Amino acid sequence: MLVAEEFFPYPSFRPGQREVIERIRIESRSHGLVILRAPTGFGKTAIGISTGKMISPAIHSVRTRNEITPVLRDLKKLSERVRGVRFSFIHSAHVMCPLLMGRSIDPEDFWLNCQILRDMGLCTYYTRAQSIDESDVEDILERAENHVDAVRRISRDLGACPFFSLARLARGSEYVVATYPYVFSRDLFSTVFEDEPSSYSAIIDEAHMLTDPSAIFSSEISISRIRISINEVREYLGGDPYLEDLLDRIARITENKARDERLRKIDRSELGLDSEAIDHIIETALEVKRRAMGRILSGGDVGRAASKRISLAKVALSIAMLEDSRFEAFAYIDPQSAWLKISAVDHSVISEALGVYRFSLLMSGTPPSLDYVERILGVKEPSYIDALELGAWSPYKNMAVVLASELTSRYSERADPMYSLYARYIDEIDNHLDGVKLIIYPSYRFMLKVVEKLGGRGYVENRRTTIEDLLGGIEKNSLVHAVAGGKLSEGIEITESGRSLIRCVFIAGVPYPQRDDYMDEIMRTMRRKASEKEVWDYVYNMSASIRAMQAIGRAVRSEDDIALVVLGDRRFMAADLRKYMGLRIGRIVRNIGEFRELIRMFNSI
Ligand code: SF4
Questions:
Q1: How far apart are CA 529 and CA 522, in angstroms?
Q2: Residue numbers of the chain with a pLDDT score lower than 50
């Protein structure tokens, strides 16, 4: 048996898979980090598992909980072929906790409740998790339909805490599937694993996320939560004038700064947050939490104690991020509230988090370029593998790509006539094309203007929309309006019997990232590593291409899918954008008449 066969979950390979595994094996001998570009449908998960088996133990990070089940499915396949494969998975304790029974609470806030209950010996699920046989948990993982079912069975059938049962199993496993925070936060890593991260390989899925530090290292709090935390200080401690003033000042400054959805920087000195102040907030939050829990527990209600929300805990832990000088505070406002967002503004937080692992494999259909990983993330001598060059099937062959040259989302042309023109093009695909039509916009503001011209037709994403919301509300022939880089444009898969129901992806404007104070800060730190022109190219051209290609990748999930891709902005003709997208434009249409004709032709295929 060759190395590739030995570590592969399936009895046969898709084109290019065996070659990719062999290349990773060779590259991993001399490189600490390998970037793998592999298209939709290539079977990246199986590649990740094979790599993890070659350089075990490994942690496979996924962006959302929903992405755990497909990895578990491949691990089960592997354990059918290779005896003795041990695996586990980990995600948020607050979602798994049987004591919460569906009640919602912030993870940071919950973690303190859980810790207090464990320290006091009051959580019987935790006690049981320490004594059960690991093979019982393994059996459940083998039999469970998905990760949700596994969690349910551990608490119901074994009477044990799912999180700590799975964490125990993870410590003795070769392969652990975990959501991003458990891989990128050292504190969370150590809640699960006893060994140092340097004993593990990290398999990072959807690695294009690493271009935006705030996607992994940020936290946000609404102004109302800050105000509630002032009341908590009064209720549980009888007041603390210094802290009440400080929190009130933070709330007022955030409210005054926040004008729209763009992030505006708040100077730390304006907030009055030095190390001493941050320590005081944290100590007070812990005291408030202890007293609040004490009150509930004196009545003996462990379930209520587990779900007790203390806003000050979330406020304190978010603000504590500012102790690291690579983080900054920002304000923005949405229809619900004004928000304080604390976010990393330096990519070194990412390379630092990756650098602790023995080996890292970054996988994506649209990973950042090699020079970006080397220069901006600061990774020494990474290696780059392109699965398409090693024989992988290309989904781009199944796409008809058309560019509409009279459209643009350029700021100087954003006005009613352009919104109406976009609406007319979208109207054409809606009227003449079957299937789901995914329309991707550069921003919420732009999207709402066009949707208004369409009379509000279709499913419209908002900041809090989840993929489950969409799947519950979508019809087979509907329009879906989403924002580039958002949950829907990068996360949805609408399939039936293995085939994608998305027939068209319409990129309504180049999805350049929004220019705001966060972006200015990011560019400021990047200029230390690259020239102004290069920074601009990375931040705008590379990011816009990644976002557009991620959305386009939603349409073709198998070799049987055929999709129409509309590049709805004349700027897609620019070589700077095309060099990252690598997409061949089949036809350029100059007006709506030509577009209509083309749609009819496509529909008859
Ligand atoms: S069951 Fe107990 S130990 Fe487990 S997450 Fe809930 S509170 Fe924590």
A1: 12
A2: 1-2
